[in-house]
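Reply to dn_fold:

You asked what the input looked like. This is it:
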Amino acid sequence: MTNAFICGLAGVALTDDEQAFLRRTQPWGVILFRRNIESPAQVRALADSVREALGDARAPILVDQEGGRVQRLAPPHWRGYPSAATFERAASDTKGVERLAWLGARLIASDLRDVGITIDCLPVLDAPQPGAHDIIGDRAYSRDPASVARIGRAAARGLLDGGVLPVMKHIPGHGRARADSHMELPVVEASRAELERVDFAPFIANADLPIAMTAHVVYTALDPAAPGTLSKTVIGEAIRGAIGFDGLLLTDDLSMKALQGDFRQRAEAAIAAGCDIVLHCNGDLDEAQAVAEGAPVLAGRALARAEAALEALAHIEDFNPVDGAREFDAALAMTA
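and this is what came back:
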């Protein structure tokens, strides 16, 4: 019996307390950060031990491996990847840009599958707007929503072709937020028409992707009281409605300072608003226990969405990573 949450871990190997926690609470998956990553052999062993504790060989292991500022698997053991904004500058035409985004994601997928990681929190489909906080910045593929949609889809396809599930973020859009939701709650005052024209557009174009992650952002035109993660209106009318996303909906990290209340309350509020699975990242077991208490058994439509997402892992396209890396590096070298 799987429960509707994902948790983090404290270090590079499971502690006895973490092993007992995983066995007792049965989260859907685990997310890794730099504190959990030392070497390829160590990450493989950690992934194996998580799945053994959960009794599920398919249990998802997630990571944020975007490139640039957000890269958990880093040199010297892994390739250093450029930021998303690099691709638009590195090719002279649309097909070239999309090819580079696909190649980068396909190489990332090879890295991740090799160590047992099956979900990457990529692509970032936010379209930064003038005056926005730089928490998104060069993590975005472009400032143009149509370009974000196309390049982000190429990256998602690269991951899927490599047997890794993409997570598009931060739905319905973090690109015009003037604060970092890790530190405080952003409030966006754009009209609904403007949100739909700009912020929603990349997500609408990619609404068939299997997984998305919410934004801890208040959109006053939709719900002036609650951030998207905790808003029935934002999830029902914008994410499930106007955007048309019917895949698996994860929260952003519940430990971010944009949210208030104890951790059980945060989890319960997110589930009540319409999120399928809640995410807690920092590895604090006391907080994670509270999240687990607020997360229901994964069932019904949420379970069906989770199962549908995992089915997309079944096929891996042929790919030569040596040739792919050579092509990728050559294209990037031309703009260095």
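The mean pLDDT is 96.
Hope that clears it up.
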